[in-house]
Amino acid sequence: MATAPSTFHEQMNPEEEAALLDAIQKWVDKEVAPNAQKYDHDDIWPEEIVQQMIEMGLFGATIGQQYGGLGLSAVTYAKIVALISSYWMAITGIFNSHLIMACAVERFGTSAQKAKWLPKFASGEIRGGLALTEPNAGTDLQAIRTIAERDGDDYVINGTKTWISNGIKGSCFALLAKTDPKAEPRYKGMSFFIAPKQEGFTAGKKFKKLGYNSIDSAELIFDNYRIPAENLIGGVEGQGFYQATGGLELGRINVAARGVGLAEGSLRLATEYAQLRQTMGKPISEHQAIQLKIGEMVTRARAARLLTFDAAEAYDRGERCDMEAGMAKYFASEAAVANSQEAMRIYGGYSYSKEYDIERFYRDSMLMCIGEGTNEMQRIIISKQWVARNKV
């Protein structure tokens, strides 16, 4: 199995990181928080916000500085994602899916691929995501049916992907396909490609969703889609499964950070409301039933944050961290669901009103338990890794 070159970046010094997070907070306060509700309710692509994220360099957040990116560590990146998600989670998915694509190229691509693609990814000139999931293949990636056949100096690709973030607005995707459908075990016949939109590659319908609105989740259709062989990531067939799942560690840290943001945002909203809403002559924050809920919410959000940064620190050290990332993703996403539900109860009847932001947190949170590998799968990964690390 190929070994990926290190792409882990050093942690910023505390003063620089504080200044960056302060700038992000000011942007969120001015541009994101006041507009999130309208974008979400109307399910509108947030064009102005995306342009602002390009200008801030977020599409190059984890891409190395030598390619024009910010070169942020996973820890700093997780802090940014958690902060933004505590106001509006969906927009973090726009640059996270893009950065997982970039991560695959930066970690596993050839020198020529990195030089050609990463500067354009970092600048936001080319934006996209990850094309893995198919109608019959979600958690079981080895069940994909998209086929890439070698034809001279090209590959011809046929198949369909589904639930692809940035599917409509994105212009390039890291595409997983089978170059040897008969290979056993199945993962040895899978390869990863840099797939720009062009003839033979179309985006299908945009899915209507319960939450996670504004970001487009769509079907991608490949019909005799022809790309040069030089777009095979790493230049060697059969490495795609390893390359695709290698990027999921960063993806799961991102989902964990989104869970942290949702848990902390729900806590913030509930805390504010509990001090304003009065019953029986006093704020409901002074009622023991509400205090018990808030106490649990505070603890849950804090634990999620610590688990997420623990995983991010392991990633930054270049260590294998599928167990740590799995624990963070599992716990933080469940914390997001639990805190949003408790916040709904604290709001009472008002929580069901579209006038209050808490209903968006409630709708968005459940996705975190499903995306980047279900929480059921995370628990299996955690268990297997724990036993492997503690052999008797």
**End-to-end gap:** 27 Å
Per the principal axes of the C-alpha atoms, what is the gross shape? globular
> Quick one: how many beta strands?
9
Mean pLDDT: 95
Number of helices: 12
What characterizes the major β-sheet? Answer: 4 strands, antiparallel
Specify the helix fraction band: 40-55%
C-alpha Rg (nearest Å): 21 Å
Strand order of the largest sheet: 2-3-7-6
- Low confidence ranges: 1-6
Beta-strand share of residues? 5-15%
SSE order, one letter for each helix or strand: HHHHHHEEEEEEEHHEEHHHH
Structural class: alpha+beta
At a glance:
By secondary structure, the protein is an alpha+beta fold. The chain has twelve helices and nine strands. It has a four-stranded antiparallel beta sheet, with helices on one face. Strands 1-4-5 form a three-stranded mixed beta sheet. Strands 8-9 form a two-stranded antiparallel ribbon.
Quick tags:
disordered N terminus, 50% helix, 392 residues, 12 helices, 9 strands
Question: What is the secondary structure topology, with strand pairs?
Answer:
Blueprint: H1 14-32, H2 36-42, H3 47-56, H4 74-85, H5 90-108, H6 111-123, E1 128-131, E2 147-151, E3 154-165, E4 172-178, E5 190-196, E6 201-206, E7 217-228, H7 240-246, H8 248-276, E8 278-279, E9 282-283, H9 288-316, H10 322-347, H11 358-368, H12 375-389
Helix pairs in contact: 1-4, 4-8, 4-9, 5-6, 5-8, 8-9, 8-10, 8-11, 9-10, 10-11, 10-12
